[in-house]
# Entry
Amino acid sequence: MIRIKDIADYVGVSPTTVSNVLHGKAQRVSPETRRKIEAAIKEMGYIPSMGALMLAQERSSMIGVILFDKGIRNEPALTDPYYGSLVGYLDQYIKERQHYMLMLTVSNVEGIIHQTKAWNLDGLISCNLQPDVLNHLYALCQKPLVSLDAYLEDRESYINISTDDFDGGYQMGRYLAAMGHRSILMISDNDQGVDHHRWMGLRKGLEEAGIPVSEEQHVIVSNLYEERLVQYKQHENLFRKQTALFFSSDYYAMEACPILQRMGFRVPEDISVAGFDDLFCSKLMTPKLTTIRQNIEQKAKLTVDALFSLMNGDRHRKWILPVELVERESVQQISV
# Structure
């Protein structure tokens, strides 16, 4: 194992001089000596200790990405392909900034605070936290923080980046109405934040098309697969009265299609199905899924850019990213 002393002996300088170059204090070293040391580091294959770098630089070069764990009975967040894609892109763009990602999947704010302090994280990215949790988190940690998909009032303390969920629901409502559908359900596992805005947008789109909408058309199911499966079977008669189902995510829409088929439904001949997100796998299923596209990669890049602007002391901003309808095969035109 190559040590700092080995590099110092090779170049003919002190270990302190090598350490200054390694730890970003090269202004204390002449350009010629720095070049010799950097060449020796590369030639000898020296790999610095991250722990030593963290101590020397008084920062961790680590960004915490928070996925809130709702409890032991719930499916891990990363089983949802939306979060798998989002976290993958976050990791990619964090690395481009010469930083590293630390996943924080804890069930309470105090756990997040403990991890943030223990790792001396440079910044935080929170995914879909409720506003009260988010505000409490920032008040306790006082770290640069970018939130994703939190519906809250404007704040000067951190940046919020969200998708235009209302417009996505609205576009889907207008589209389903134009395709001749009049009996439509929206299915999600809650009526808060993101899902609430998608429901309200769908409702407005349908009502503008002259289709009356009631709260009973928003069906709330469990976030546990086995419980959802039971609930779908219980709702079979309700589904048979519909011509279209709009799911709050592609994940739930893709999951539901084979369940509906086992009930005897043909998709889309008997019932149309639509989702939200435009995950990569949504165009691989049969039939290919009609959905609302949000640009997950753009969202991740903007999030990382925003966080580093906060870390550099830039002023705070708020973004709402546009969405677009993607028409595929799972929604069928019907006669009015």
Observations:
- Residues 104 and 120 are 13 Å apart (CA to CA).
- The first helix runs from residue 4 to 11.
